[in-house]
Amino acid sequence: xxxxxxxxxxxxxxxxxxxxxxxxxxxxxxxxxxxxxxxxxxxxxxxxxxxxxxxxxxxxxxxxxxxxxxxxxxxxxxxxxxxxxxxxxxxxxxxxxxxxxxxxxxxxxxxxxxxxxxxxxxxxxxxxxxxxxxxxxxxxxxxxxxxxxxxxxxxxxxxxxxxxxxxxxxxxxxxxxxxxxxxxxxxxxxxxxxxxxxxxxxxxxxxxxxxxxxxxxxxxxxxxxxxxxxxxxxxxxxxxxxxxxxxxxxxxxxxxxxxxxxxxxxxxxxxxxxxxxxxxxxxxxxxxxxxxxxxxxxxxxxxxxxxxxxxxxxxxxxxxxxxxxxxxxxxxxxxxxxxxxxxxxxxxxxxxxxxxxxxxxxxxxxxxxxxxxxxxxxxxxxxxxxxxxxxxxxxxxxxx
Length: 400
Prior knowledge:
single chain; alpha+beta; Alpha-Beta Plaits; 2 domains; 6-stranded mixed beta sheet; two-stranded antiparallel sheet
């Protein structure tokens, strides 16, 4: 049987598909039930071959084997069981294991039953939370000592063994549950980190893709525009060459912090790549003009000890929010806007840097609101007055 196939959703044997789309937790349950059935079958075979050498009730063992086999078939046919159904199976399995251990006089069978009881709550961590896991663990903690108390002579050793067997499930489940909680926290942190730029703490491209859909839909409901501003640090290569990459990184962080302080909480700031930072925002039609100039001024005012002062060039683009959109189409819309804002950004670079240029807005064709179309006019318009600022000696001067 192919284990890789099971993880990928298909179980095969010698290349032939046996079960399709078997969920991995269900596969674990089926594997454990299969091991139980195989163990019972082996015990029966040994007892028969030894002429009844084991002190077991063959009927009980045969019934346990048959029940485990039925569970395996049920799980393979179901392919995916709910947590509630898995909880019922595990509780029934714990009770049946404890009962079979109590009614059997064979010491080996008792140890096998106690060991299985200790393992069942560990499997329950995958499916159960809170009271479901507590009740399953309690069954295991009570069942294990009962198995020994039923047949072993009452002595101090029996008491110690019973207490130890009762503690094992609780300790194991506690440790596994704590590890599961840490794993869940690590996964959540990784998911958050997957959407954030490690250096600046801004969104990265993946983070933008996750959040741009809700922003576009909110703009659509409010009848607003969706706008993009792309900012690029002027002469950033010169900063790295002159001061080193560590200082360059600190400059990027300072620029990101300045931009973050100039936008609203629902605006999306993204480190688009290298020294380029993009903003996706919603609002009335004229907001992007004021916003871009505010961003430019915020960076120009940054003056931190040990860092060269820098400026940014900015390009913008905007469009009316489409009436209906999916996350994928919202991402496509933002990508189109970013392309046009980037073209306007290069116009700002050519015009002398430390200034804003606005691209012609995108126009949505009537009846196809989900598909943004480019307006016929593609010219770049400028603000009537672009500031020209004399920078201090530590500044990186814009080139002509």
